[in-house]
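Observation: inputs received (chain + glutamine).
Thought: call the complex predictor directly.
Action: predict_structure
Action Input:
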Amino acid sequence: MDLSTLTIAEARRALDAKEYSALDLTDAYLDAIKKKDGDIHAYLEVWEDSARAEAKKADEMIARAESQPLTGIPLAVKDNILIEGRIASSASKMLENYRASYDATVISKLKAQGAVFLGRTNMDEFALGGSTENSAFGPSKNPHDTSRVPGGTSGGSAAAVAAGMALGALGSDTGGSIRQPSAFCGVVGLKPTYGAVSRFGLMAAASSLDQIGAIGKTVADAQMIFEAIRGYDQNDSTSINPQRSDLGNHKGRTLGTLGVPRAFLKEGIEPDMLAQFEETLEQLKSAGYSIVDIELPSLEYALAVYYIINPAEVSTNLARYDGIRYGLSMPADTIGDVYAKSRSAGFGAETRRRILVGTFVLSSGYADAYYRKARAVRQLIREDFARVFADIDAVVLPTSPIPPWKFGDKADPIAMYAADIFTVPVNLAGVPAMSVPSGTIERDGKKLPVGFQIIGGWGNEEGLFKVAEDVEKFDTARRGRP
Ligand code: GLN
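Observation:
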């Protein structure tokens, strides 16, 4: 088996046809990790023994003809998703030795299917960043050019899938952290509708924005993972209850009209990235889609709004890491000193920056000027999206305005934030979106992947998959893959 091209769908067929066992498949991945991860550093920890045990169980399920879509499929899990008994550190010194006491709902669902967990993947600390450079344990590298970042924050998960070190992966996306690393590494990433996948057992960064999602080599693979983890969960109060919601309004609708927010594409995007995007639009047009210009005036404020709401929620959520209840604890004479010493030693620079900004925008006297204002504008963004989805079926945008950068090139935090311009509006609105590989550009003689982003109406993942599969077809033809 060639792990660099193998898909979940192909592995499923081969496992059920007994062409190889789940144990063979898992061993092949563990071998690939041994060979390649010294260079890439996608994993913070690999679970050889338990992965093999899970694979053996999967083989028994297959022998009993009880296999489900992900039975025996080796997956990687982002380090902020809890697996009972396993360390989950959010790539932070604060939680370096923290062991989860329960399974996240997505993990329980995958365990029930007999999936195999290869290990936990690197990320930016507490899912804050865009490159994995904020990991307390060193960055991951982009498999297409190891002098460049894999994107973030789910950079380890995307790099593992791209380098053939996992068949698929779980990530989390608060402002682009599944889509952007997927674009940078040339794989498919899905950020589901807010509430479509349970957040129970996901370490909270910004709770009103966070969502667990899927990374795979193909649209079909991302869909298979999504189908396995989606669903109502009473342990997550923001989970979509199918009985009470209007989920299904869009369901199954075919997507014919795609909207391009032209005014939003004017600044900051590198010319060859824009050219790739336009080329994909042309191909969609010749495949029968109608492409229309749309106006989403509030998008202009999305980045500013995001970088108020995200720090506000992060500062609140990270207050629990106080050196008393969880994680790193530094002894000191007074309780105040325990807090200060533990939080100074446990959190990296970007995490501290968000906590400071968040505390500021929530403080009395400033909350009206910043936090409440940002919430009001967020509502306008939601309404803008709802308005355009009355006439069109999906909004399309590049996933990132720039290609993966070289390590250290975005040392200025504001420069890194600016690269999130096309992904953060989606989380503010709570709608689903996908990044699909679509052509390449060249830097320093190396071909780097480009991502095409498709944003759907609330609850319309099914529609996204259809457009995404068309984009995937063009990309496959362009790259001359089988
Ligand atoms: N880059 C964004 C941030 O740093 C998004 C992070 C994410 O989606 N987790 O907030």
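Thought: report the result.
Final Answer: The domain at 8-229 is CATH 3.90.1300.10 (Amidase signature (AS) enzymes). The chain has three domains: 8-229, 257-306+368-479, 319-362.
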